[in-house]
Design a protein that fits this description.
alpha/beta; seven-stranded parallel sheet; three-stranded mixed sheet; 11 helices; 12 strands; about 15% strand
Length: about 350
Amino acid sequence: MKIIVTGGAGFIGSAVVRFAVQQGHDVVNLDALTYAANLQNLASIEDSDRYSFKKGNITDGAYVSEIFEEFQPNALIHLAAESHVDRSIDGPGAFIETNIVGTFRLLEVARDYAKGRKGFRFLHVSTDEVYGSLGPSGAFTEETPYAPRSPYSASKAASDHLVRAWGETYGLPILLTNCSNNYGPFQFPEKLIPVVILNALAGKEIPVYGDGKNVRDWLFVEDHAAALLLVLEQGEIGRQYNIGGENDVPNIDLVRLICGHMDEAAPSGAPHDALITYVQDRPGHDRRYAIDATRVRNELGWSPSVSLSEGLKRTVDWYVINQAWWEPLLERPGVGERIGTKL
């Protein structure tokens, strides 16, 4: 296929671009190169004849339309988004602009482009955070009512509703996915797992919000990329698919698992769990997420292939040996600072 990927220089986006090119698809990566983007994520395929990069913002409908007309894609995978909850607390405006207005612009370009064309698909990639916070039991299904509780999740929920509406009202051939927390190599160093690894390497305190018992489901990013391509190729138009790693773990347990791998990868700093420090909780911090991925498993045959222990080991080892990748990113605005506390 010929696929446009928005946000393809980000963490998940670059994994999708790499995987799609390796699978023989032609890919245009449209990315505005904001603070969390990094073209080094794509060094392994940047010279491929199947890959090209376009710098631009999804809110620029005229430019996006030019790319559509030039490339003539069969599909679009929409990953471009502001995604850090803490940043959304301090500055929600960027989340409204990119996640809501940007998605609207893409939908309008795609709607015009898809008229009279057969086979085009618009895959919108979202998050389990749109469902809100779970109690001590149960899991999110595709029928779970939306109940977002942060500016980030609210902006993603709004974009989901727009995509679904453009499918119902205008007949745009859309697909939606909602994933759990991703992790793996190339993740920007403001997210939990890279923060733990890099602080452990530096001998710094490892911050854990609140009592550390907030639960998340963890999905290895390469498993997610494979799932997205499968949904794009075989998913039923108009259908929503939850994608999860089946690894529901309290944050404090996750941090201790990472510390255990760090003790092996960097034994001079062991025991790294001595660096764990509990800090003031984040405002509106959802207590528990869990994904029920029955639909994507039963209908499309997908299931995660990487266990949490294996994925964490691979991730820790990657960060330990790739200092040249992450060290320059520590200088970017907000990285290494406690943000998301403004009320």
